[in-house]
Amino acid sequence: MADHADTPIRQVLFVAPAEPDKFGLAEALPHHRLAVPSSLVASQTDPWMSAASALRWASRWGASYSNLGAVGHINTESGFGPFPLARRWVEAARARAAREQRPAHATIQEWRFAV
């Protein structure tokens, strides 16, 4: 994704990712800033990835980082049902994408204010 400028992906939200080394995937992942804005949400007590490792991956990718505290793994089995943070993030991402796309679809009458 990060190496493909033509990707249709506009933003990425990582929620409670597992430690890539546990699956032998660390070398396959990008070790540089991603080409799109991203956010990583983690937990202080996640058994799948330490908060320190989550912060390191977020830093590598240029992702914003949110630590929800001592909540374990962030999933439905831990008591997380609908995730309003994710919903708000998606809605904000859609709004940003619409604002960015708007000038490309504007008519000449809409641009008259500029002259």
Q: Looking at this structure, what is the CATH superfamily?
A: Alpha/Beta hydrolase fold, catalytic domain
Number of helical segments with 4 or more residues: 2
Sheet with the most strands, sense and barrel status: 3 strands, parallel
CATH class annotation: Alpha Beta
CA-based gyration radius: 18 Å
Low-pLDDT stretches are none
Tell me the count of domains.
Answer: 1
The side-by-side strand order for the widest beta sheet comes to 1-2-3
**Share of helical residues:** 25-40%
- How many DSSP E strands? 3
Give structural attributes:
115 residues; alpha/beta; Rossmann fold; 3-stranded parallel sheet; 2 helices; 11% strand
Describe this structure as you would to a colleague.
This protein is an alpha/beta fold. The chain has a single domain, classed as Alpha/Beta hydrolase fold, catalytic domain (Rossmann fold), CATH 3.40.50.1820. The protein has helices spanning 51-61, 84-105, and strands at 12-15, 38-42, 64-67. The protein has a three-stranded parallel sheet, covered by helices on one side. Strand 2 (38-42), helix 1 and strand 3 (64-67) form a beta-alpha-beta unit. The radius of gyration is 18 Å and the shape is elongated.
Short description:
The protein has 115 residues and is of the alpha/beta class.
Please give the structural blueprint.
Layout: E1 12-15, E2 38-42, H1 51-61, E3 64-67, H2 84-105
Parallel strand pairs: 1-2, 2-3
